[in-house]
Amino acid sequence: MTSPKVPAADQTLRILSLLAASRGPMPANMIAVQLGLPRSTVYHLLAALQEHGFVMHLPEERRYGLGIAAAELSFAYARQEPLSRIGRPLLAALVDRLRVSAHLAVPHGRDVLYVIEERAPGAPSLVTEVNVRLPMQLTASGRAILAALPRAQARALFPDRAAFVHRHDRGAESGTAGAEPVIDRYSRLRSVLDTVTTRGFAVERGSVTPGFSSVAVPVLDHRSWPVAAVAVTFGDRDADDEDPASDGAPDERLRALAEAVRETAETLSARIHGRPAAV
């Protein structure tokens, strides 16, 4: 059953959402135009928001921006760890279904930070434990997040070759059989991200830990912005064994794993008021 809208509350939240999405403080008349609201209504709501600290007025610029109370909401959100609380049972169910280890990671600069690890029974310990940070371009989770970002944003994260960090020397240049090419420049990363977009999920083979591969799908917020990624990790030898997700060829089994990961990511996206994940 859909709850009835409260006009003043709806308009107030629309103002806060607009200011949050803006590059900087905005004039009241621009807020009114963009939201299609009367200017008098906008001024009244801004005054109330300012009184409670959610909006600050910059008189010299005649603009309004988010206030300290809005920042406190962000800190409170982080303290309550909603992604971890909501995501943990979903990842546990994914592990039960696929019998491989699962992870939830969030972006942290040019890294991903692992906030959940659900290890499958009998599975070995992996480097992707809770609170571990790894370079984005090396991980399936990071690649899923980067592929969901606007191209300009992804490019800004990797302005030059010094931005690319590696865990060990391996890849096409090292001569290791089946290894991924080393991603040491943006053109190579862009090629990988374009493949992620075309395929619909991210894959990593041995770039984090030799002998292990991962698939990942992003978790998107209400703006279709990637706030996290769900991934599963499995031993490469396991991919040759009978897989509970599929009876087909290795690529088909990989897609079956990715589809299960996608379902989990979409459920998590919906539960944080996001949209279905898609890359």
TrEMBL record:
InterPro entries: ArsR-like_HTH (IPR011991), GAF-like_dom_sf (IPR029016), HTH_MetabolicPath_Reg (IPR050707), Tscrpt_reg_IclR_C (IPR014757), Tscrpt_reg_IclR_N (IPR005471), WH-like_DNA-bd_sf (IPR036388), WH_DNA-bd_sf (IPR036390)
IclR-ED domain sequence ranges: 69-274
Keywords for the protein's UniProt record, in alphabetical order: DNA-binding, Glycerol metabolism, Transcription, Transcription regulation
GO molecular function: DNA binding; DNA-binding transcription factor activity
Keyword Membrane: no
Domain HTH iclR-type as annotated: residue spans: 6-68
Gene3D superfamilies, alphabetized: 3.30.450.40, Winged helix-like DNA-binding domain superfamily/Winged helix DNA-binding domain
One Pfam assignment: IclR_C
An individual GO BP term: glycerol metabolic process
Function in brief: May be an activator protein for the gylABX operon.
Name recorded for this polypeptide: Glycerol operon regulatory protein
Lineage: Bacteria, Bacillati, Actinomycetota, Actinomycetes, Micrococcales
